[in-house]
Amino acid sequence: MQTDYFFVENDKTARKVVKFFAPEKKQSDLKLFLLDKYTENADIKEAQELMLKGQDFGLLSEAGLPCIADPGNLMVKWCHEKNIRVVPISGPSSIILALISSGFNGQEFTFHGYLPIDKGEKKKQILQLESQVQKTGYSQIFMETPYRNNALFEDLTKFLSPNTKLCIAANINDPEHEFIKTKTIKEWQKQKPELHKIPAVFVLGK
Predict the structure, then answer these.
(1) Taking the C-alpha atoms of 15, 16, 17 and 21 in order, what is their torsion angle to the nearest 10 degrees?
(2) Residue 200 three-state SS
(3) 23 phi and psi, to 5 degrees?
(4) Rounded to 5 degrees, what angle do the CA atoms 133, 134, 136 make?
(5) Does the keyword Transferase apply (predicted)?
(6) pLDDT digits (tens, 9 = 90+) for 108-146
């Protein structure tokens, strides 16, 4: 890490990340700017002015890869508009890791983010995703807030057809608690996993 300036989602956890990867850095030297899903350009005007003067910034993700199911694209978009160089650094994406470990179509897929909270809208989208798999063969990837994972699992096993295949990838890359399984809905109904407050990605496919 060659900069002390970062866009972060959470000050406390960002400092832990920097300390882990760059323990030589002084925490008092770090300049952290909040960048989450509620951030607007006006909120980070000071940071933008520093960047226009040539200051390098890093973009830290809370979990996964910045800008993929994660805030950050607002800043990246602004950088392109101002002709400021953007340098991507390779890192893990739970979405891609779930897909490649599912056994489903990795050539054609769609990521939908979080499903609707409203019960009726959620059921409607679940059935639409299943229909897309059946019609096109495209893998359908989505997520849920960890504390609602079990409720989503119940909805999936209730609304989807028995032969539809579902992959659940939870605690990805956790050496002790990683759970990745692909089963039909009929099989999942016989083996309910415990997903409460566990980061998980769901994939429907063939």
Answers:
(1) 100
(2) strand
(3) -60, -20
(4) 65
(5) yes
(6) 999 999 999 999 999 999 999 999 999 999 999 999 999
Token digits for 36? 């989450």
Contacts of 46 (CB under 8 A, 6+ apart): 33
Asked if 65 contacts 111 with a C-beta cutoff of 8 angstroms, the reply is: no
| Nearest one of 122, 159, 161, 8 to 70, comparing CA atoms | 8
- What is the Cα–Cα distance from 179 to 67, expressed in whole angstroms? 25
pLDDT, position 153? 98
> Whole-prediction pTM value?
0.88
CA distance 168 to 30: 38
Dihedral angle sign, alpha carbons of residues 40, 112, 109, 128 = negative
